[in-house]
Amino acid sequence: MIIVDTYREGFDNALWQVYYTAIRQGCANDYSPSQLEAWAPDDFDRQIFFNKMRELRPFTAFIDGVIAGYADLQADGYIDHFYVHGDYQRKGVGDALMARILLKGRAYPRLYSNVSNTAKPFFERHSFYVVKKQLIEVHGQYLENNAMEFIQRTGSQSVAKF
């Protein structure tokens, strides 16, 4: 059973492991080893990450009491972080987090995110579409990602939310 709850201080080390393994394990087929190292470096100052988590206050997904993923939704509808631990991918964790975001996101005029090539099919299954491809620099490496927005479905028609 997957339980989605709110962020609490003290989750930071577990959230770092989610972030690190999601990138290093989950994205290995879509990005080179040097790109993965730049994105989730072994020597990253974790205090920067911990401060970011306290700022984002992400939803946190648990399986059997273990933090298996996290995602946030900012006040303007931006999804900054959406990560599932490498050992828990394809087990419904992402779907549970997305359900929470879409539920809360009803109050926002638009939902959008910058999504890795790895996560792009998942976001597309949840009615996001690519606005444009992007090339971003991370610690001297260039990584391709996708600016994506949510499509609000009403009946049989789809309306883009801007």
Structural write-up:
- By secondary structure, the protein is of the alpha+beta class.
- It has a single domain (2-160), classed as Aminopeptidase, CATH 3.40.630.
- It has helices spanning 12-24, 33-39, 46-56, 93-105, 120-125; strands at 2-5, 59-63, 66-71, 78-79, 82-84, 112-116, 128-138, 141-154, 157-160.
- The strands form 2 sheets. Strands 4, 6, 7, 8 and 9 form a 5-stranded mixed β-sheet that branches. It has a 4-stranded antiparallel β-sheet with strand order 1-2-3-5, sandwiched between helices.
- A hairpin with a 2-residue loop joins strand 2 (59-63) and strand 3 (66-71).
- Helix 1 (12-24) packs across helix 3.
- The radius of gyration is 15 Å and the shape is globular.
- The protein starts with a strand and ends with a strand.
- 28% of the residues are buried.
In short:
The protein is an alpha+beta fold. It has five helices and nine strands. Strands 4, 6, 7, 8 and 9 form a five-stranded mixed sheet that branches. Strands 1-2-3-5 form a four-stranded antiparallel sheet, sandwiched between helices.
Question: Keyphrases for this structure?
Answer:
162 residues, alpha+beta, Aminopeptidase, 5-stranded mixed sheet, 4-stranded antiparallel sheet, 5 helices, 9 strands, disordered C terminus
Structural class: alpha+beta
**Could you say which overall geometry the principal axes of the C-alpha atoms support?**
globular
What share of the residues does DSSP label as strand, in percent?
25-35%
Helix content: 25-40%
**CATH top level label:** Alpha Beta
The major pleated sheet works out as:
5 strands, mixed
Termini distance? 34 Å
Task: Write down the overall mean pLDDT.
Answer: 93
The H-level CATH homologous superfamily, spelled out, is Gcn5-related N-acetyltransferase (GNAT)
Poorly predicted tracts of residues: 155-162
* CATH architectural arrangement: 3-Layer(aba) Sandwich
CATH topology: Aminopeptidase
- Count of folded domains: 1
Radius of gyration: 15 Å
- Number of contiguous helices: 5
